[in-house]
Structures are given as C-alpha cells and as structure tokens.
Write a structure and sequence with these properties.
Elements (H helix, E strand, L loop, with lengths): L10 E5 L2 H9 L3 E4 L14 E7 L2 E7 L5 H14 L5 E10 L15 E4 L2 E3 L3 E4 L2 E4 L3 H4 L5 H10 L2 H21 L12 E3 L29 H4 L3 H4 L6 E4 L9 E3 L1 E4 L7 H11 L1 E5 L2 H5 L4 E9 L10 H16 L6 H11 L3 H15 L8 H7 L3 H4 L3 H4 L6 H10 L12
Helix pairs in contact: 1-10, 5-10
Length: 423
C-alpha cells in the first residue's frame, strides 16, 4: 500500500555512486516519487531521495554526495529525521574483495557479492613514529547487530536458503542485463589476480621526470601517471598473474563475512591480505562504518576489484548490478515482526494509556531541559516512543506534550526492534 507520508517507509537503501543507485532504481517494482517532490523532506535535510517499493517493502533510496564514512554518517543522520519509520538500512553498491578467504580458503571472484552484518573500521588507531597501529576489537565498538538480523543471517547461510537467494539474484541480474548494455558481464579475460607483492607501476624507466616508481629509497611508491594507467599500458607482467577466472559463466556467488571500512581506498594487495588474516574480513568499502552507528545496517556489495594496485573500473557496473540484485533478493527474506507484535501485546493488556502517562512523566523528570543529544540514553530509555506517536490513544494527548513528542521523534527515529518497557 502506498504510504500516506514519509513515516510509512521502513527500508532505506544508501548508495555512494550514481551507477549503484541506477541499478537499484531499475529493480524497484514501483517508483512513487522519483525526485522527492511529493513526500518532501524534514527542514534542514539536504539529502536527495527516490522512493518506491521493492517487493512488499516501502523503500527510500538515498544518494550520497560523496564517498566516505563522514558523508555516509551525515546522510544517515539527516534521513532519520525525514523518514522516522526506517528500521533497516542497506548500504548497497560495490567494494573491493579479498580473493581468497584465509580461514575457509573460499575464493572470491569479481562480480561476486559480499553480504555483511559486521564492520571493521581499520583506519581507527594511533600513529607512532614507526608506523600506524590499529586498535583491536573494533567490530564490538561499532555495535552488535540486533537479534532479528543475526537470526536471518543464520537462516540465509543454510543450503536451501542460500540456493534460493542465489536463484533470485540470477533472476534480477538478468532483468538488469536485458535493460542496458552497461550491466553486461565483462568476461573472464578481465578477471585476473596478480601476486600481492607485484605492484601496478612503471617497470621500465618512464619518460616523466616526476616518476617515483624507481625511487630506491621508497620502493613501494607509485607515480600518479602509473596510478591512472591500465595494466596493458604499463605492460604488467602476466607471469605474475597467480589466478585467472576458471569459468566464463556470468553470475554471482554469495559470501557472508565482515566488511573492512575506511575513508581511504584499499589499493595494496599486501595490506589487504594482512587485514584479511588478522580480522577475517571479506571485503573493503568506504561507507559501511558511517551508517553503522546511525541505523541498523546490512552491507550488500558486489566485488568490482581485488583491493590492490591493479584495480580498475572494468567491473564496476556489473558489480553494481550484482549488488543491487542481491539487495532485492535479500529483502524477500526480511520480515520484521517485532514492532507489531509488541504493540498488539500492549493493546491486549491495556498498557497503552498507562505507558503514555508514564512516558510523559518520566521524560520530564529525566530530561528537564529537553536535552536530547545523548541519543543512546534516549533509545534505551524509551524504546517505544516513536511508534507511539502514530497511535490513536497517543494522538489525543499530543497538544499537551507537543514539544516533547517532537524531540522523541527526532531522537528515536533509528529504532528497529521494539522491546517491552516495564513501567
């Protein structure tokens, strides 16, 4: 059913690149508002939105103005005010992939999909004279996924569900491939993996006087010209290729694992492999950590490169297509029931009236100055407040507590799992 206002949208999809958003929009079952004119935005929200449906879900697609954690966090924060009903954010697009998962020896190929419910923020740490030292235990610092997400992940990793998900992805990917030439499979000849220690650089003396590739004091340095050149133009040694794609069949395998997130692009095979071994990560992106602290979040990314110095954009559109197809397939299995079940329990036990009164009393007592900057305290203290705003029994008392209600909506707009608050 078409929502009457912005509060009726429960799923957010956040994309950093235009090509990622294009793939997602093409898989909408219906577009309600292409440019955000009909539903509008909260005052002060500078985000841009497209809204519609994917399957049974009302979805808001949010565009990021630029890549990076800070941009992602800003977009997610503003979106919560405009779309307070969002209970799950999907960060959808492309990422760098670890070619061989170190603990399972599972290969990842270009175009495969990584679905992650855990994030490692690998640029978090301290800079010492002898180098940068990462802080350990970052996934816990970024928060643990709620039980509903963890349970679904366990289900999707069963053989039957994984097979169904794979079939759904193939179906949606075919829809995209038929729609435009840019979503086509690039072919196995474009999927090669170089030895991690073999850098993408000039291997013969360049004509440019600014070339750093032959600096004996810094052998890892690569000049700007080399960074912008293809492997063909640099004549990267094919004898240093350690793996080629075994099959030319189009398609995408699914991998469940951690995503390493940072404001810097991972373009080092050696650092990639070390982080994969140390933290058991499957891929690298620049947005996941930014959204993670703001909304319940799942990251769904198509692998467009191997996160090494040889990365290019040949696979970007196809990886965006596999990521978008996987997001649509994933939403078929997302059936949150906690909020409605809790509200029904409260109605059946005649708890609403008492709850509303206690809420208002305790709000005034706990936050006499309407201080709503401590978001975590608000969320834990009033887990039902947002949903109550739309209940008939609460609307009758709106005038008495109107300022307080606005603060509740602002501060609790990220809640996904309603819990029973014992008053």
């Amino acid at each position: 059913m078409r929502p009457k206002d912005r509060s009726g949208f429960s799923i957010a999809i956040i994309c950093a690149l235009t090509v990622e958003a294009d793939a997602v929009i093409l898989l909408f079952d219906e577009v309600y508002d292409r440019y955000g004119d009909e539903y509008g935005r909260h005052p002060g929200d500078t985000n841009s939105y497209t809204v519609g449906t994917i399957g049974k879900h009302n979805v808001v697609l949010c565009y990021m103005p630029e890549m990076g954690k800070a941009s992602a966090a800003g977009v997610a924060t503003k979106m919560k005010f405009s779309y307070p009903g969002v209970s799950l954010a999907l960060v959808v697009g492309v990422c760098g992939g670890v070619p061989l998962l170190p603990y399972s020896n599972t290969p990842i190929f270009l175009g495969d999909v990584i679905i992650s419910h855990a994030v490692v923020r690998y640029d978090y740490g301290r800079q010492y004279p002898d180098g940068f030292k990462r802080k350990k235990g970052i996934p816990e610092n970024l928060g643990r996924p709620n039980q509903e997400i963890r349970t679904l992940f366990q289900r999707l990793q069963t053989s039957m569900a994984r097979s169904d998900l794979q079939n759904d992805i193939a179906q949606y990917l075919e829809v995209l491939r038929r729609s435009e030439p840019r979503w086509q499979y690039p072919g196995k000849a474009c999927d090669v993996l170089f030895d991690a220690s073999y850098h993408h650089k000039h291997h013969q003396q360049a004509t440019s006087l600014k070339c750093l590739c032959f600096n004996s004091e810094s052998p890892g340095q690569i000049c700007q010209e080399a960074q912008e050149s293809s492997c063909d133009s640099l004549e990267c040694d094919e004898n240093r290729i350690i793996r080629r794609r075994p099959s030319d069949a189009a398609g995408a395998s699914i991998h469940f694992g951690k995503i390493a997130s940072s404001d810097t692009v991972m373009k080092s095979g050696e650092h990639r492999d070390k982080l994969a071994k140390d933290e058991d990560v499957a891929g690298f992106d620049m947005e996941g950590a930014g959204v993670w602290d703001e909304l319940p979040c799942i990251i769904i990314k198509g692998v467009c490169d191997y996160a090494d110095s040889h990365k290019d954009k040949k696979w970007q559109a196809y990886a965006a297509a596999t990521g978008a197809s996987s997001a649509k397939a994933f939403l078929r299995y997302w059936n949150p029931a906690s909020s409605e079940a809790t509200r029904n329990w409260m109605r059946g036990n005649q708890q609403f009236t008492l709850y509303i009164r206690k809420t208002a009393e305790r709000l005034t007592e706990a936050f006499p100055n309407n201080d709503h900057t401590k978001r975590n305290l608000w969320r834990s203290y009033l887990p039902h407040a947002l949903s109550l705003l739309e209940e008939d029994e609460f609307k009758g008392q709106r005038e008495q507590y109107i300022d307080l209600l606005e603060n509740i909506g602002d501060c609790l707009s990220t809640l996904i799992l309603c819990r029973v608050w014992h008053v």
